[in-house]
Fold this sequence. Notes:
Blueprint: H1 3-9, H2 16-29, E1 46-48, H3 60-66, E2 70-72, E3 81-87, H4 107-124, E4 128-134, E5 138-145, H5 148-159, H6 172-182, E6 188-193, H7 202-212, E7 218-225, H8 227-230, E8 239-243, E9 250-254, H9 259-279, E10 283-288, H10 294-306
Parallel strand pairs: 3-4, 3-6, 6-7, 7-10
Antiparallel strand pairs: 1-2, 4-5, 8-9
Helix pairs in contact: 2-4, 4-5, 6-7
Amino acid sequence: MDIRSELHKAQLFQNLELLAHQIVEGFISGIHKSPFHGFSAEFAEHKIYNPGESTKHIDWKLFAKTDRLYTKRYEDETNLRCHMILDNSSSMYYPEVKNLSLDNLNKIGFGVLAIAALMEILKKQRDAVGLSIYSDTYDFHTPEKSSERHFQMLYSKLNEVATPEGTKDTRTYTFLHQIAEKMHRRSLIFLFSDMLQTETEEAMLFEALRHLKYNKHSVVLFHLLDNAHEIDFEFGNAPKRFVDVETGAHIDLYADSIKKAYSEKVTQYQEDLKLRCAQYQIKYVDVDIRSSFSKVLNSFMIERQKFA
């Protein structure tokens, strides 16, 4: 038996859809802490009333509960086309986690669960969802659809993502260009990536981000990082070997000896990324994978309402 092959077939989570449902339910139960105070589980079947719209479908019972105006949604409504993009490169499997759970995630685990949670909301809203996954190759692409069968296929595909074999460079910009070329109808695009590239590729990466805005798409970048290690460089002061998971290159050093310079460099890259996103009118959201999913879900709710 090829053990490597069997590992690549293993599921990330035992029941991805159930976990996604738990995340969304937890978000709803704590929603009084968010900008959507007073909004209960009914949100999946409603949309915020915009001045000038017909008042015919306002839910007055919900208004009595929340003091906010919402209109009911109907089965034939598909107001949103949403496309999820997942970076599945080797660096997304940091930190190494043997048994993924809600309380013990690496970057790929967080990205998969975040996408699944957004799909849970979108499915209830009867919106259309598409998915692209890339690593050292363009692994998977499916256009936006809203059928139950389509959503089940997406859950299954997300649960089967596996780290690329070997140590290969991943050029995010190459695949973002290819994905942008496939997006013909205006959509809300969510990119989940750690955005780790070699320094010489930054300009090409920024250009690829701008390409995603083609055809008047709305784009949100969820920048996934393990802040304690990848920003603050908290490794203690014992000698350690640091290995680049994509190139195999390594270096032996005392972490404290480069901690300050490293953190400054990474912080500057983040600021450059934020600036470029602002220039291209891309929503930039920095996400610590050790935090909750509320930042992702709140950002989605805000962008969903702005998308028209």
